[in-house]
Model the fold of this input.
Amino acid sequence: MLTVNAYAAPSATEDLVPTTIERRDVGPHDVLIDIKFAGICHSDIHTVRGEWGPQSYPLAPGHEIAGIVSEVGSAVTKHAVGDRVGVGCMVNSCGECANCQAGEEQYCLKGNTGTYGAVDRDGTITQGGYSTHVVVTEDFVVTIPEGIELDAAAPLLCAGITTYSPLRHWGAGPGKKVAVVGLGGLGHMAVKIAHAMGAHVTVLSQSLKKQEDGLRLGADEYFATSDSGTFETLAGTFDLIVNTVSAKINVDEYLSLLALDGALVNVGAPAEPLSLNAFSLIAGRHSFAGSMIGGIRETQEMLDFCAEHKLGAEIEVIPASQINEAYERVLASDVRYRFVIDASTLS
Ligand code: NAP
Ligand code: ZN
Done:
C-alpha cells in the first residue's frame, strides 16, 4: 500500500479538505502515475454533494488526470516509466461483455469501475485524481501525445472525450450545423472539437457574456438563450445539438431548433428528470439521445485528434487550497473554462 496526499470531501455537505488516501501496490498489469494535474469536472461536484445518490466518504474526486508514469508492473507492455499519460472517468470494466469487446467499456454491461467512488475489484472504494499518485491497470491508461501540455490535456480525459464521442457518433463535420448548449468545461471543448471537425458551430449560452471567447474558440455564431427571440430565429436549424448544461433545461424548446432528422444529445447530467412532449420528436423525426464519456480506444483517438489540431483546454491552474472556491465558481457558471489542480501543491 502507498499512502498519498489528496483532497477529499468528508461528507456531502462539507468542503473538501487535505487528507491522505491509500493506493494499492503496483500489480503485474498496473501503472503507477505521478499525477501532475487534475481537472475539476462538474460531475465531481454532483457526486461529492450526493446529487447522484449516496456516496462513501471520505471521497477524493477527480477523473481528468494527467501525469507521468513512475513505475510499471512486471507484465505491462503499453506504458513505460517516464511516459506522459492520462486517466479519465473509469479505471476498469469486465472486459468480456459485448460492449467491452466493442471498445465501449463505458457501457460495460456489468458496469464500468469509476475512477472514484466505485467498488474496485479488491472491494475497496476507488479514489480519484485530486491526489499525488494513482495506480491503474494499464488498459485504462492512455498516452498524452507530445504537443499538448499536461495541464491543458487533463480536461480532455473527460470534457474532451465526452464531447468528441457524440460529435463523431452523430457525424459532426462539413455541411453539418452543430449547436453547443452551455459554454463551460464540456461546452468549450465541444466548440473547439466540432470546429476542428469542420462543422458550422453555434453556441447557445445563457447570456452574451462569453460571446467573444466563444467565437475565438471556433464558434461561427453565438446566441443568448435568455433572449426568447433566439428560439424563433433558430427554429428548425440544427442537425445536432449537444447539451452540456448541468441543470434541467426545457427539452421541447431545444428540440424545436432541430432540422429534419436532427438529434438533441444530452451529455449534461442534472439530478432532476427531464421531460418532453412527444410531438417535439414526432414533428421533424427528431431524436433525443444521451452519451456517456467514450471508450478507451476512442479516448486515445480523441487525444491524437486534439494533438493534431493543437486543441488543449482553456484552463485556470489552481493550487489545491482553492478547490472549494473553484467549485463555487463552477456552480456560478464562472469558469473560463476548466479549473485544473496543480498536484504539486498537494505535497
Ligand atoms: P460546467 O463547466 O459547469 O458547464 C456547464 C454550463 O452549463 C455552464 O457553464 C453554463 O453555461 C450552463 N449552465 C449552468 N447552469 C445552467 C442553468 N441553470 N441554466 C442554463 N444553463 C446553465 O460543467 P461541465 O463540467 O461542463 O459539465 C456539464 C454537465 O455534464 C454536468 O452535468 C456534468 O455532470 C455532465 N457530464 C456528463 C458526462 C457524460 O459522460 N455524459 C461527462 C462529464 C460531465 P453558459 O454560462 O454558457 O450558459
Ligand atoms: Zn467529468
Remarks:
- The pocket of zinc ion (ligand 2) is lined by residues 41, 43, 63, 89, 158 (CB under 6 Å).
